[in-house]
Amino acid sequence: MPEGDTIHRTANRLRPALLDQPLTRLSAPRLVGDRPRPGERITSVDAQGKHLFITFSGGLVLETHMKMTGSWHLYEIGQRWRKPQGYARAIIEVPGWVAVCFSAPVVQIGPRKAVGRTDLGPDLCVEGVDFEAVVRRVRTILPADEMIGDALLDQRIAAGIGNVYKSEVCWSLQTHPFDPVGSISDDKIEALYRRASKLLIANLTTTSRTTVPGGLAVYGRRGRPCRRCGTQIKQQTQGQYARVTTWCPRCQTEKGRQANAGS
Ligand SMILES: [Zn+2]
To answer: How much is the pTM?
Structure first.
């Protein structure tokens, strides 16, 4: 799924083509309600967490959230699209360019206040995050038995982490993704979010995502040797939404289940 760095990269790619340009066409087959009119200018293209916002001079904002399936493509007018038109959920045309959002499950438009989530935590793709406040959010919003792997994905705590960075930062700090947050110190939780932010920011300008020299540490490496200790990497689904988690069973020892086994 797209992580925060992907959405920021998308925004950075769309911005030069769209910013300050007059809208010549907006097509969004499933949208209801007000729409920007042709001739309105695009005043901003922003990522916040995993949400992409395109603002028009009339005050409306188009919000897309890619979830597992969505992506934005940018084409020159007349260029052949790489996906079928039937998958297009939003098409924005300006002189010379057409931006197409394919297969995004969330596409909505409205005044800024009406779109977007107001309960999103700070964007980890941006410098200057108050990490102590992030830890406080973990302690106040989440129950103590919430698994850290699920907590890292919870965009109310901090925005931008998906399955890839969740798995990578847990490996990096030798934390088992199934450990309950109540068993993890404030310092360790802060360190996990700091590492995630550092990696997300480092990958904003890269073409292939890397978290360790040569690629990723655990994500996508099920059954292969851990880069730290050589043990086979494990993979399992986790939590309510059965999200993929990968980890090293040797260097990420599990606190939670040991505790459970003893009780
Ligand atoms: Zn290992």
So the answer is: 0.72
The alpha carbon of 75 and the centre of ligand 1 are apart by a number of angstroms equal to 43
Q: What is the dihedral of CA 74, 78, 81, 85, to 10 degrees?
A: 110
Q: Distance between CA 10 and CA 175 in Å, rounded?
A: 31
3-state secondary structure of 199: helix
Q: Which domains does the chain have, with CATH numbers?
A: 4-111 (3.20.190.10), 131-262 (1.10.8.50)
* 8 Å CB contact between 136 and 127: no
| Six-digit token string for 185 | 């110190």
Residues classed as catalytic: 2-3, 50, 243
Mean pLDDT of 156-166: 92
CA of 249 to the centre of ligand 1 (A): 7
pLDDT band at 242 (very low <50, low <70, confident <90, very high): confident
Helix (H) / strand (E) element for 36: namely: none
How many angstroms is it from 129 CA to the middle of ligand 1?
30
The alpha carbon of 83 and the centre of ligand 1 are apart by a number of angstroms equal to 40
Residues near 259 by beta carbon (within 8 Å), at least 6 away in sequence: 183
- Looking at per-residue pLDDT, the higher value among 208 and 188 belongs to 188
Cα–Cα separations (whole angstroms), residue 67 to 45, 52, 114, 204: 18, 11, 20, 19
Task: Please state the rounded mean pLDDT for residues 167-183.
Answer: 97
